[in-house]
Amino acid sequence: MFDLIIRNATLPDGRTGQDIAVREGTIAAIEPGITADAGEVIDAGGLLVTPPFVDPHFHMDATLSLGLPRMNRSGTLLEGIALWGELRPTLTKEALIDRALRYCDLAISKGLLAVRSHVDVSDPRLVTAEALLEVRDLVAPYLQLQLVAFPQDGYYREPGITEALTRALDMGVEVVGGIPHFERTMEDGARSVEALCRIAADRGLRVDMHCDETDDPLSRHVETLAAQTVRFGLQGRVAGSHLTSMHSMDNYYVSKLLPLMAEAQMAAIPNPLINMMLQGRHDTYPKRRGLTRIPQMLEMGINVGLGQDCVMDPWYSMGTGDLLDVAHMAVHATQMGSIDDKRALFDAVTVNSARIMGLEGYGLEPGCHADMVILQATDPGEAIRLRPNRIKVIRRGKTIAETAPEVSTLMLDGRPGQVDPAAYAPKAAQ
Fold this sequence. Notes:
hydrolase, Metal_Hydrolase, single chain, alpha/beta, 430 residues
């Protein structure tokens, strides 16, 4: 007797007609034609069943603050940082918690059940850390929130930030962040990478740095990050986020850099929506796309996870909390349009990002947590194309969100009465 059986599921690896049996919040079996009884049975109807979406790069302390204290008129990264600097002294714990919880509601509806959020520790009050630590506990029954101590203004740029970051880690923030390209000099940036990696090594923590988020091809802190990763024995625990300077670097230098990252077992976290919006602002035409070298990284075996980064905040006025929007933009920006390419980008918003965060029990295998999403699509490529409704969002074997299938009614003589977007999948995808 099982608690739940999902019947006739299509899995991301292409297997069809699979039944997924769940007992006590854990996947007990995946195979065709499970004959046992269950307390609940869900017919997937051949639709795609996937592990939940994972966002490895977000700013939950700023989310849904669009318009506070005013709009970003230029739309630039620097004006966004300036706006956040104006808003930060006015932040209250209550308002931060309210906005974060509202965003988590949206995330759940999109099948997003794990988020790594950077927490700005540049204000010594640390109200952001206090608020998001409380949010982490509040949402723990249905969403895993991992927090990064992020010195938004630079680790060495202002007095008191080094102490504030240490206090945030002491409070329970579990990942060490940084922003070396925003320090006052390249030398200070390199020093900050070394210092922050040393802290992570001493505390046994992971590292996730905003690194080289610029069009400047000479911003090369990712090289230092790779070297310090090896020096401090942090292999497999370090991620470089954004890495947009790489889109402007010459190919010879990149041919040296990518093997260094692979040797250090570093992960990369591009953020396609934000990177394309904020980078290339000094260009006329031709205009750079603002995205790091995702295809080449994947070819080198570097783990790439795609992040949402922002939703309706001083940096980005758009965003839906849907990681398939992120993958959809990545397909276009990287020209990764083949079937295999789209499967790789689907992995970048699911299993790859779960590995970056070190999530335990994640996946669609017996013994994994029974955390799943049923999508109104037939395979990963179609899911990216359609960004479809989440028919069921399941956490530990229990449905926590559901959306009715999208079906349009037509009133046309001689034509079908209904249109289901998922029915338009090409034959190769069915």
